[in-house]
Amino acid sequence: MSFFNKGGVAMLSFWSALRNINQFGSNAFLIMENLLGFFPRQMFFVQIIEKNKFIIIAIDPSKNDRLSCEIEFENKHLGYFFSKTVSEEVVESCAQCIEECTSACYESPVKNIYEKSLKGGSQLVLLPISDAQSSLSHLLGIIYEKNLNNTVNEVNKYIENEVERQVKERTAKLMATNEELFYLANHDFLTGSYNRRYLLELANAEFKRVRRYGLSLCLMMLDLDHFKAINDEQGHPVGDEALKEVAKTLLETVRDCDHVGRYGGDEFIIVLPETDVSGAMLIAERLREALNSVKLTISIGIAKLERDDVCIEALIHRADHLLLKAKRSGRNRIESIAVKYSA
Fold it and tell me: Are 143 and 118 a contacting pair, CB within 8 Å?
């Protein structure tokens, strides 16, 4: 038979709220510190060293002691706060609680709140606090009078609000982390454009969509003229800066619906949904002129969706062939099946 009652009916909502302290992890000490405001001289902590060894820490709120798992406390004998009889009962109750919580057949300490009537009419509450490995590490002790209904209601509200705040905070952090991971997984680390895998995923999706609805589609492949010479003569850092400038210009020039990605080396692909060759040529010319203004030149091949195309790779193959044709014809050129343009 357990030495304790597990949560009196009248205080059930209070104990349920206190259980949420275990959800705060490393913030549990901060939450318990704030609870001192509700129980100014009736609260203590038990640090469990091992099964049969523990330290009871009583905090003197008049000295504004702050709780921390890293700071040494000014420990006082329980008799400084409580009578000798109450102190003895507290020590005995803590030992019993630790014994029950560390029993191999016992429930997880997170699930239970322990309550016991003390001599003199006060109530003792012990809340087991588990660490990250779900092992019992501390007890939170509260001695309260049975007429503390207002205090209990305030504590309930405080803990509920704290749970809600921390849930929102953790959700926001999780969302920010997921967004960062998504960006890192789908973008080229040097240029900030899409990486090859994600670019092809988007290109395939656009291919299927325009095929389904009978829309136009163009694909542009381009690369930086004389890129090898830039690396060989001026160094790879200069070459990297040139690639960044190309990517920056592409991203600033294309439309929101277009997809820009680094295909490999100094080659980039731009997927242009619902765009015919003449529209793609206008975009290509703007890109070429913008890069010419910073003393960089590019060669571009443009392929459009044909009736017998069965996959996006068909457009990539034709755009690659047209890009090669532009380079062999003098570079700084735009080549397509329909039209061609050079400086």
Answer: yes
